Amino acid sequence: MTTHRTQSGLGRSVQEDRDGFLRLVLKLDAVATGAVGLLSVAASPMLDDLLGIPFALLVPVGLFLVAYAVAIWIVATRRRVSRPAVWAAVAINLMYVVDCVVVVAAGWFPLTALGAAFVLFQAAAVTLFAAAQFYTLRKAARPS
């Protein structure tokens, strides 16, 4: 693969600028995901009633989200951002979006209106993260 070292306005290469945006998106994804995961675990007894999401689902999903957030943070802070790891993050994010929509649409859990809104808001936010990651990866693949 050929790397083009075109200079941007601040003396950084275009590739470094793209990686900087990708790192930012990954870090934002990690922070948001980690926060939702910690909230799900720490406040699960209260959220169970408030959202209608069972405790038995909140805790394992919350723990998964925390672990995923740590993994994404690691990817974002490496010297070189692993493109395959970011593609995997895009795929996992999109699967999470589908899962969220299916959970609400199928009515598997007695979600309150706030619970349905919470799940769908997560789906929307994760869609934005996946789209930004996808856009940055596709843009980085094009020659400058």
Uncertain segments are 6-15
- How many E strands? 0
End-to-end CA span: 13 Å
Count of helical stretches: 5
* H/E topology pattern: HHHHH
Helical content stands at over 70%
Q: Largest beta sheet, briefly?
A: none
Radius of gyration based on Cα positions: 18 Å
Task: Quote the beta fraction.
Answer: under 5%
Shape: elongated
Q: Report mean pLDDT, rounded to a whole number.
A: 87
Q: Structural class, judged by helices and strands?
A: mainly alpha
Provide the domain count: 1
Report on the structure:
Helices cover 78% and strands 0% of the residues. The protein has five helices and no strands. It has helices spanning 14-42, 44-51, 55-77, 83-106, 113-141. It starts with 13 loop residues before the first helix and ends with a helix. Mean pLDDT is 87; it is low at 6-15.
List keywords for this structure.
144 residues, mainly alpha, single chain
Write the SSE topology.
Elements: H1 14-42, H2 44-51, H3 55-77, H4 83-106, H5 113-141
Helix pairs in contact: 1-3, 1-5, 4-5
Short description:
The chain has 144 residues and is mostly helical. It is built from 5 helices and no strands. It is elongated.
